[in-house]
Amino acid sequence: MLSRIGLSTNVVLYTPIVFYWILMGLRYRHLGIATAANPRIETGGLCGESKSAILNMAGPHASRAIAPYAVFPSGPHAYRHATQLIAKLGLSFPVVIKPDIGCNGTGVKCASSADELRTILPLYPDHIDLMVQELIADPIEVGVFYIRPPDAPKGHISSLTYKTSPALTGDGHSSIAELLHKNTALNDTAHIYLKRLGKNANRILEKDEHFTLVFAGNHCKGSVFHNGHKDITPELTNALDTLLQDVPDFHFGRIDAKVPSIEALKRGENLRIIEINGLGAEAIHIWDPTTSLREAYAAQIAHYGAAFRIGAHNRKRGWKPSSPFAMLRAWLRQRRLLASYPIND
């Protein structure tokens, strides 16, 4: 199963995809042609793009579904800027703090109070843009992948995945680390949680105390993903069409959202969008523990194939794809930034 390959997972999964990308680039005579799939987003959303810049493109209908957010600079005045924006947005603690440029949940923090916010903000490097965003309390978190060819009036949902945060229940005498190692379902990923927990891993949980191991909803950080393809409905597809066609020239990517229930999701109701991700997004059902490597390859190739076709179509319409050098610069900038962020919650 894909999620249990171990440390070589990225090499095993992504090396063939890199070769496929190169072959498709040769076929279309431009290695960056896929970036034109979302031509208004830097690199199409492959890397280095601003999260807030994508959300800022949303029209009035899509904006109402997006969790309120604002951007402020890190540095010595970050706390003042953040608290002013929290008040302006009408938010209350807890709130989410995250880098405006990033991926895989790196640097995402939850500030439960003003004091915790004051502690968190100095962990980020100076002179970067940070986002403060409402923490949506709805219990169901999903990643929904949406594709719409430029000449198609309607798009389709190619993947729906539920995200869950593993949790432990205390027995009154075992530490968090001991409970982790006793849990066979989490044993393979224990090192991910222990690295983040540090000395807190030695804390003994009270009997029946509930402890959530990860906040950021990303498989790299230890979240668990479940394929929800069976819950894709015409109503949900129509809702995504309405929302994402309100984001100019957005054709390929994934929304991360929360909903109050699976039934509401299937009805396409009460979606609260956290992020809109472009070309660099994955159909994250591939990280469901039951997904085979062959199925993951097929999903990746199908999605990137669609991105290249859409990019080629948009190029004919006059949009200019990113050059390979622009893509490399964006990736190197993102890589430097990721290395400077604090460990996520």
Automatic annotation (TrEMBL):
GO MF, any single term: ligase activity
Transmembrane segments: 6-23
Domain called ATP-grasp fold RimK-type: residue spans: 78-137
Cited Pfam families: RimK (PF08443)
Residue runs in coiled coils: none
Entry keyword set: Ligase, Membrane, Transmembrane, Transmembrane helix
Stated name of the protein: D-alanine--D-alanine ligase
Organism: Neokomagataea anthophila
